Each structure stands twice: as C-alpha cells, then as structure tokens.
Amino acid sequence: MTRLAAQADLEYFPTQERIRPIIRSYLSFPESGTTAFDPCCGPGDALQEICPDQYLFGMELHTGRALEAKSKTFVKVLAGPFENCTVSNRAFGFIHLNPPYDWVAGGGERYEEQFLYRATNYLAPRGVLEFLVPTTLFEYQGEPVLKFLLENYRDIKIFKYPEPEFQQFQQVVVFGVKKPQERVTASPKWFAEQIARITMGDIPELELQNEPLYQVPAINPGLVKVFRVNHYDKELAESESQTLSILQTQSKPVLKDNLTAPYLLDKALLALLAVGGYVDGIMPKHYLLGKYENHEETTHEIDVDSGEEVTITRKKSTTVFYALTPQPGPDGSRIAVIR
Ligand SMILES: C[S@@+](CC[C@H](N)C(=O)[O-])C[C@H]1O[C@@H](n2cnc3c(N)ncnc32)[C@H](O)[C@@H]1O
C-alpha cells in the first residue's frame, strides 16, 4: 500500500487473524479479570480476541470503526485521537498497541513512538505491554525507542512474525512488563547492533506457546476513573444522541437547524449540569433523579491534651444522582448511582 493510501485509511493495518491467537498464547490473565486497553482499537476485534473475558477499553479515530468496536464487548470506546485523551495514569493491566505507522506531521517523530510514550503512562506497574510495529520503526527511530523500552520495561522480548507473514508485512511484536523508570546508558555501537538484529530479522520468531510467558496483573477490574477524549465527532454524536429532537422542540426556530447532537453524558458532564441546576427530567434519557441524603457520622478520637477518648458526631450531606447509562454496568444495571 502506498503511504498516501495508508494515510487515507488512517493507517489501518489490523493485527492479522492468524497472529492474534499466537499473541494470546504468550499471556495469562488473572481469574478476577483485568483492565485491557487498545489506544487505536480499529473495529475492536483484535483486543477482544487477545484478551477474552477482560474489561476492554478502546479509542479509535475512524468513526465507522469506533462504532463497530462500540457494538462489541467493550466497557467503553471513545471516538477521537489518542493524542487528545485524558485517561487515569496506571489504570490498565494490559495494553495492546498496534499504532498508526507514519511520521507525525512535520517529521521528527513517528506515531509509533508518540503512542508508546503516551500509552506507557496508562499502564499499571507490572502491567504488560504488547507493542506491534514494523521493523522500519527501528530503522528510523531505533535508538530512542529501544532506550525508552529499556528504561520503562523489564523482561523485554522482541519476536518477528512467523513466515509467510514476516516476508509480507515485516512486523515484530515487543512484550515487556512495566517497571519504575530508570536511566539506561549504552554505547551507540551497542544500540546499532541491537537495531541491526531487529531490522535484519535476526531475532526469535513469534510462535504458539504451550505455557504463557507473561502474567497480566489484576488491575481495578472494570474501573477506570477517568477515560475521556477532547473531540467532538458529529456522526457518532448523531448516532448516539437521544436528545437532539428534544432540544429542537425546545429551541428557538432560528436555532433549530443549527443544533449539534450532544453525546450521552458521562459523570463529569452530569456533574456540570447538576451544578447548573438542570436536574430531574430536563434531559430525558440522562437524568432520572437527584436528591440530598443527610446522615450522621460518629468517630472516636483521642484528645491530644487530656489523652481521653472523645466521641465526635458530624453531620454529612451527600448529593446523589441516579442516571441512565448507555451500557449496563458490571451489575447488569443501566442505572448509575453517582454520589
Ligand atoms: C495499525 S491499525 C491497528 C488496529 C487495531 N488496534 C488492531 O490491532 O487490529 C491503527 C488504527 O489506528 C487508528 N488511528 C489512526 N490515528 C489515530 C489516532 N490519532 N488516535 C486513535 N486512533 C488512530 C486507525 O484508524 C487504525 O484503526
């Protein structure tokens, strides 16, 4: 495929169907499940197949593919550029990273590098990274990429695709376990030798494992506190929004045709509406109910002067919202309770 054709399809080079179960065989997942993330998930099938029965999170720039992924068993899929996301650090036990293969506009850095550096923030300590890239990445940016991997990961192994795929696609799979960052220094000669081994294909081949090599840790199953992207996708919003027609009936005639479809609201947006006082039925399908709950909390503390135990009773108020969510939560309910 020419570079222009690849760019037109946003660098969509899906993880090949024959390769997915081989990658899967290198991994063992905890019984309680873990959070798994694909920052550019395409239609979602690669992550789903590599991590069956895990809590899947995805991001994808191409609207059609994002919508397809949303129809799969993901906890959440965001449509938008990975570069514009806000995600809790150290939130995932596993990351499958098969990024766009191209230079970032203006040159200087590759998307593969940018995605690797950013994704590493979102991987938990001892979390497992699987990074799938073409050998050309190492030709262009071998030293900074290898150095970053060595500084942030232990138990790094790099495998070339089996044949005939290696001949055809020239891709390699890097596995690593996230460690606390440390400085790594090596001579340019040492880096050049390692890079040459990768680009010449002088490395072990990816092959089906009888016993997994990497134990993925259980991380906050199902729970990622912040998972947002700062990007408005008109097509996606129109397909998801259930409030555009309501807004149109309530708006002034002159605005009617210029309204944009709002997304289904997430917790942060709900909180903003609540602060603005728009609670209870103003936005059907979003809000069910908001109320205050008052209760008393009793604690026993030691008075530092007298050494005597004192009982302190404090009044506490909590604002509680019950909201309808687009997808059922872990308990199967579509009513989210937000305190
Ligand atoms: C190499 S494909 C990998 C697809 C999938 N992860 C897999 O392994 O089969 C790269 C994907 O990244 C998407 N993409 C390109 N630029 C992106 C960006 N800035 N943010 C998020 N996704 C992006 C493309 O639309 C494409 O689906």
Note down, in words, how this protein is organized.
The chain has eleven helices and 14 strands. The chain has 339 residues and is an alpha/beta fold. It folds into two domains: 213 residues, Vaccinia Virus protein VP39 (Rossmann fold, 3-Layer(aba) Sandwich), CATH 3.40.50.150; 98 residues, no CATH class. The strands form four sheets. A seven-stranded mixed beta sheet has the order 4-3-2-6-7-9-8. Strands 12-13-14 form a three-stranded antiparallel beta sheet, covered by helices on one side. The longest helix is centred in the middle third of the chain and has 17 residues. It is globular and about 70 Å long. S-adenosylmethionine binds next to strand 3.
Instruction: State the CATH class of the largest domain.
Output: Alpha Beta
- Show unreliable segments: none
**Spatial ordering of strands, largest sheet:** 4-3-2-6-7-9-8
Measured between the Cα atoms of the first and last residue, the distance is: 51 Å
Report the sheet with the most strands, covering strand number, pairing sense and barrel closure.
Answer: 7 strands, mixed
Which structural class do the helices and strands define? alpha/beta
Strand content: 25-35%
CATH hierarchy: architecture of the largest domain: 3-Layer(aba) Sandwich
| Beta-strand segment tally | 14
**Approximate helicity band:** 25-40%
The fold-level CATH name of the largest domain is: Rossmann fold
Can you give the mean pLDDT?
87
Summarize the helix and strand pattern as letters. HHEEHEHEEEHEHEHEHEEHHHEEE
CATH superfamily of the largest domain: Vaccinia Virus protein VP39
User: What ligand molecules are bound, each kind once?
Assistant: S-adenosylmethionine
Total helices: the number is 11
- The global form is globular
**How many structural domains does the protein architecture include?**
2
CA gyration radius, whole angstroms: 24 Å
